[in-house]
């Protein structure tokens, strides 16, 4: 059975292509820079690569000179060049904690809601989890009633 392509996958596909093209980078150059097979870049841009980790997304953002959350923004958003910021795990940690606290939810309650071990939530909130997949990021955002991009923003709305 083929995994379901989510809105997050579609946004990632559209944004990797638009940022790559706006930087004048072809798929071959991006693949070489990332150290990935060309097919992986092509699969990401066609939403066929469904199992990309947070660390891989952060690496893509760094190479494309954008903030990680910008890879998940709607296409109509402003496109501005950004400095390289490999800070996604730290941003994720702070924002998961912040949104969880806003909902007056314990880490244990969040883990139960997601059917994840409490240790996974602890790793995320400590900034130690760098292999979070796009599907896991989306599930986490749904559990916290926010958009996936909000988990990776520097200064999320309060």
Chain-wise SSE layout:
Layout: H1 7-22, H2 27-34, H3 38-45, H4 54-64, H5 88-102, H6 107-114, H7 118-125, H8 134-143
Helix pairs in contact: 2-3, 6-7
Task: Summarize the structure in words.
With 158 residues, the chain is mainly α. It folds into 2 domains: 66 residues, Orthogonal Bundle (434 Repressor (Amino-terminal Domain)), CATH 1.10.260; 65 residues, 434 Repressor (Amino-terminal Domain). It has 8 helices and no strands. Helix 2 packs across helix 3 and helix 6 packs across helix 7. The longest helix has 16 residues. About 5% of the residues have low confidence.
What tags apply to this protein structure?
0% strand, single chain, mainly alpha, 158 residues, 2 domains, elongated, 434 Repressor (Amino-terminal Domain), 8 helices
Spans of 5+ residues with little confidence (pLDDT < 50)?
Answer: 78-85
Mean pLDDT level? 83
Biggest pleated-sheet summary: none
Q: Which class do the helix and strand fractions yield?
A: mainly alpha
Fraction of residues in H or I helices: 40-55%
The CATH superfamily of the largest domain turns out to be lambda repressor-like DNA-binding domains
Strand content: under 5%
Topology-level CATH name of the largest domain: 434 Repressor (Amino-terminal Domain)
Number of helices: 8
The CATH architecture of the largest domain: Orthogonal Bundle
CATH class of the largest domain: Mainly Alpha
Number of domains: 2
The general outline is: elongated
Rounded to an integer in angstroms, the radius of gyration calculated over CA atoms is: 15 Å
- How many strand elements? 0
Distance between the termini: 39 Å
Write down the secondary-structure element order.
HHHHHHHH
């Amino acid at each position: 059975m083929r995994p379901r392509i989510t809105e997050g996958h579609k946004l990632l596909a559209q944004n990797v292509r638009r940022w790559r093209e706006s930087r004048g980078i072809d798929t071959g150059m991006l693949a070489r820079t990332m150290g990935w097979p060309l097919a992986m870049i092509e699969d990401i841009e066609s939403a066929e690569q469904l199992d990309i980790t947070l660390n891989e997304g952060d690496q893509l953002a760094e190479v494309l000179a954008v903030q990680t959350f910008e890879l998940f923004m709607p296409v109509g958003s402003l496109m501005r060049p950004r400095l390289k910021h490999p800070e996604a795990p730290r941003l994720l940690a702070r924002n998961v904690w912040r949104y969880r606290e806003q909902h007056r939810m314990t880490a244990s309650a969040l883990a139960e809601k997601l059917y994840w071990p409490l240790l996974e939530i602890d790793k995320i909130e400590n900034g130690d989890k760098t292999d979070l997949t796009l599907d896991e990021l989306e599930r986490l955002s749904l559990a916290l009633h926010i958009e996936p991009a909000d988990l990776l923003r520097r200064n999320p709305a309060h």
